[in-house]
Amino acid sequence: MALYGAPVWYGALSGDNTLQLRRAQRVLALRVIRGYRTVSAEAALALAESMPWDLDALVLAAVYKWRGDQRSLRQRPAPREVEAERLRLEEDAVARWRERLVDSTAGHRTTGAIAPTLTEWVRRQRGRLTFRCCRTTAASGPTSP
């Protein structure tokens, strides 16, 4: 729902708007990974395999513009052509996301581990995270089953 109408409002994104999107997405990502509130936004989004919404909005806006450009040339792209363009734009967005992870200001261990293999991490079909996979026992002491 956050990305509803993204092609229309993407051009109006500013630092404040992006920060509001990031805050809302961080809350959802923390719930997905069942993480503590001290987990950084970058680490939470990476662990949740959730591309930042501003980058998702960029992809949606670019696909929308591309389709409009094709129609202005009197061409009707086939669904597979639209999908190919969307995948290409998503790859570019993942590359931008990787740069953000490398330059992140918090969550260095997590982002540093995921950044080199971000594409494979996001595209994998198996091995989803669970509570037991994400919790840290060092901070909370020994756990009981």
Question: What is the element layout, followed by pairings?
Answer:
Blueprint lengths: L5 H4 L5 H19 L7 H7 L5 H20 L6 H24 L5 H7 L3 H6 L7 H4 L2 H4 L5
Helix pairs in contact: 2-3, 3-6, 4-5
Labels describing this entry:
66% helix, mainly alpha, 9 helices, disordered C terminus, globular, 145 residues
Structurally, the number of domains stands at 1
- E-strand count: 0
What is the CA-based Rg, rounded? Answer: 18 Å
Written as H for each helix and E for each strand, in order along the chain, the element string is HHHHHHHHH
Multimeric organization: single chain
- Give the mean pLDDT: 82
What level of helicity do the residues show? 55-70%
Largest sheet: none
Low-confidence stretches: 136-145
Estimate the strand proportion. under 5%
Give the number of helices. Answer: 9
Which structural class matches the secondary elements? Answer: mainly alpha
Overall form: globular
End-to-end Cα distance, whole Å, is 37 Å
